[in-house]
Design goal:
Layout (H helix, E strand, L loop, with lengths): L5 E5 L4 E5 L6 E3 L15 E3 L2 H28 L7 H22 L5 H37 L4
Antiparallel strand pairs: 1-2, 3-4
Helix pairs in contact: 1-3, 2-3
Length: about 150
């Protein structure tokens, strides 16, 4: 199997492929697993800065909405039986995602948008941390009541 690199060029009337050697841009692997006869795409490189920014903003927005829905569901859950391991896993995942944004996406995003995005993630992290602390204090009170009874 030959590994060749091509660039899809779109003119006003038609599209065509040309050989591509410059590999600077945002690199990603397509996740479409549909089997078909034809060209197999293993890796894609986006070159247009405006297109990269639009794609990354949409990707980041969807992931942040997922985290936000999870945190809101935890906060709306009034019972104190919330499992602390789920909270810690969500916090670790959010921290990991923030690291990915800093290392991978920040160079392609607008500075103002990047600052706002990192502030939003920091806010979500602080909310998770406060919920973890409140769950810990509730567990400690429960433990004290159970094992340290007065005579």
């Amino acid at each position: 199997m030959n590994n060749k690199t091509f660039l899809l060029v779109k003119d006003s009337s038609f599209n065509y492929l040309t050989k591509f050697d410059n590999k600077s841009g945002f690199k990603f692997k397509p996740r479409n697993k549909v089997e078909y006869d034809g060209i197999t795409v293993n890796k894609m490189v986006m070159i247009s800065p405006s297109f990269i920014e639009r794609v990354l903003k949409r990707k980041i927005k969807n992931k942040l909405e997922l985290y936000l829905r999870f945190i809101v569901s935890i906060l709306n859950d009034d019972d104190d039986d919330t499992d602390i391991t789920n909270l810690r896993a969500a916090l670790n995942d959010l921290t990991r995602y923030k690291t990915i944004i800093r290392n991978k996406y920040l160079q392609y995003l607008d500075e103002k948008y990047a600052l706002l995005l990192l502030q939003k993630i920091e806010l979500l992290e602080n909310e998770l941390k406060s919920r973890i602390i409140s769950c810990k204090s509730f567990e400690e009170k429960e433990y004290e009541e159970e094992y340290h009874r007065s005579r």
